[in-house]
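wait is this the right file?? whatever heres the structure
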């Protein structure tokens, strides 16, 4: 008889074509975080996750010029937000330019998430950000 794992996880996935923009990703993410009860217990965290999702999906659409696969996984310690796109080029944080209208997405993700990382995979790359509710610290 196999041992039962003590890890419990719940997850959701959605493909977002370039034409969909980031609003659909934000709305979809907010709805799923509400099912976790976070809208009532951690509204600031929900806002942080939604903003990070918006930035990551926008990066996939603009820089990779590809659809974005958005995956949310909650393992009772961390909400893993994964955005996959078709480009193998890893994202780079750029220095801030006060006059620039863009280029701060990864700086925002870095400030909002507990951790984040990017890695290549066979058909592109994954950017993964982890968000931990305050109770988990």
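ok assuming it is, sequence goes like this
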């Amino acid at each position: 008889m196999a041992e039962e794992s003590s890890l419990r996880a719940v997850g959701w996935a959605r493909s977002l074509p370039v034409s969909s923009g980031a609003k659909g990703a934000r709305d979809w993410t907010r709805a799923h975080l509400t099912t976790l009860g976070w809208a009532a217990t951690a509204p600031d965290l929900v806002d942080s996750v939604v903003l990070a999702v918006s930035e990551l999906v926008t990066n996939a659409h603009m820089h990779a010029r590809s659809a974005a696969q958005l995956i949310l996984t909650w393992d009772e310690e961390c909400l893993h937000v994964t955005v996959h796109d078709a480009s193998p080029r890893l994202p780079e944080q750029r220095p801030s330019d006060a006059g620039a209208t863009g280029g701060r997405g990864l700086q925002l993700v870095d400030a909002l998430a507990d951790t984040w990382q990017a890695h290549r995979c066979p058909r592109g790359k994954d950017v993964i950000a982890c968000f931990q509710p305050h109770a988990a610290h």
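The first helix runs from residue 23 to 35. so i think its the right one actually
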